[in-house]
Amino acid sequence: MALQTEGGNKPPRRAFFGGTGGGRVRLRTLINLRWLAIAGQSAALFLVYFALGYSLPFLYCAAAILASVAINVGLALRYPPSYRLTNRAATFYLAFDVAQLGTLLYFTGGITNPFALMFLAPVVIAATSLNLSNTMILAFFAFASVSVIGMWHEPLPWPQAETLLLPPLYQAGIWAALVLGIGFTAVYAWRIASESARMSAGLSATQLALSRERRLASIGALATAAAHELGTPLGTIAVVARELERALPENSPEIEDARLLREQAERCRAIIARLAHPEEAMLGGIARLPLGAFLDDIAHQHRSEDIEVAVRVVSLRDDDVVPQVWRVPELVHGLGNILENAADFAQSRVTVEARWDAGSLYVTVDDDGPGFAPEIFEALGEPYVTSRPGHRAPGETQMMPDAPIDGHEGMGLGFFIAKVLLEQTGGLVKATNPPGGGARVAIAWARGVIDGPELPILPDGE
Asked: Is residue 211 part of a domain?
């Protein structure tokens, strides 16, 4: 079907060199940064040529600056301030800035000009806002520009009575410093920006999981209100139906209707009563459980013919009673993810041990799997780091916990979400490799946080 181009059915205007917008970089941001560069370049040009009286090709340098002015004005007039560039378009505009800077430096001494350091600016902008491939393209273009003006350039502006000739070895050192600086800065900035984006995405996934649990919990409050409002009229209907049933003779054709009306009214009351307390229906009417029973209930769903999950409860004080733990969603899902990950990597056995004393409560999950690789301990707890759970070869090292979340297996969010959830309950999570082999995840709480007389008040996770 052909697109109509008249009236109100015009096709969307496309950005030069790619896309209709929607990327991470706002065009207005690049325009503002380019205006700053234009102001600095103009000030340096006028200062060197007019104030210091140094000889340089003023018209050529001015033409390069005016080219940046022209593209800035054209883009500002063509696109709205909120327009977002695609990665390809942003790479093109940043490459223009590199070429314009290279042109100015060609006429003013090449890499011997101190302002050659400004080659870092477009590359850093690309590394913090574009994907890796476009960042590498721009970095290689900057390498090429530095190399070209390093070999071919006009003399550095200097007083006419004097000359400045830098040794070739020193110029080679400047070139190497610029190339290494561009490469290191690009990689470092891209890595930091990438980790920040991953952390933000992981936190968003955690907040999404928690918000779903809270929405389910809010259904209980809504159903409680509905039960309160509907309980009285349904009770009245049931009483009237019962009286009608008693008043009618046994052989009356209406007695069956009265009996059916009473039964359905009582059924409606029972349904609303169950909806009013969905957490009690899910937990068997128990909001708190002894610590051992609580852990055994979580571990039950991870037991199988191949994996044994044993729960041990050890009191460090003989006179202590077993703590009663609140079954809050953060605690249930956090420990569930840890157990699921342990069962996924275990060879045959997972051991869950609970200990407590007067000041602290401890839960330790051990498995007899290959354990965590030492080189990734620093990455434990970060989002989107995984080792393909369920697809490892025998003896393969456990790289990263990753329990499936919401049916999405292998996304690298399982341990991250479990850690965030357990820390929100006041727990301290630590992963180690015990001396006997396998992997261990230990969680510690202060007494009274999850086993106190009051339901723990947890943060909303904003």
From this structure: no
Q: What is the token pair recorded at 243?
A: 């009286």
Beta-carbon count within 10 A of 55 CB: 12
**Total count of residues recorded for the chain:** 462
Average pLDDT over residues 151-172: 84
pLDDT per position as a tens digit, 56-96: 899 999 999 999 999 999 999 998 877 888 889 999 999 99
Neighbour-count burial for 9-37, b at 16+ CB within 10 Å, e otherwise? eeeeeebeebbebebebbbbebbeebeeb
In this structure, are residues 341 and 439 in contact, taking their beta carbons and an 8 Å threshold? no
Greatest CA separation for the chain = 129
pTM exceeds 0.70: no
Token pair belonging to 110: 């090449």
Question: What is d(CA 349, CA 140) in angstroms, rounded to the nearest whole number?
Answer: 52
Give residue-wise pLDDT tens across range 287-333. Answer: 788 888 899 888 888 888 888 999 999 876 665 688 889 888 788 88
Q: Return the pLDDT at 402.
A: 41
Q: Which amino acid is at 384?
A: Y
pLDDT band, very low/low/confident/very high, at 44 (cuts 50, 70, 90):
very high
Domain closes at, from 138, 165, 192: 165
Q: Please provide residue 413's backbone torsions phi and psi, each rounded to the nearest 5 degrees.
A: -110, -10
In a domain, 179, yes or no: no
**422 residue type, one letter:** L
Q: What is the DSSP letter of 375?
A: G
DSSP three-state, residue 411: coil
68 domain-assigned:
yes
Within 8 A by CB and 6+ apart from 14, the residues are 20
Tell me the three state secondary structure of residue 71.
Answer: helix
Asked whether residue 158 falls in the same domain as residue 301, the answer is no
**DSSP code of residue 374:** G
Return the SS3 of 163.
coil
Closest CA to 343 of 303, 376, 315: 303
CB 371 within 8 A of CB 437: yes
Range(s) of the domain holding residue 148:
25-165
DSSP state of 111: G
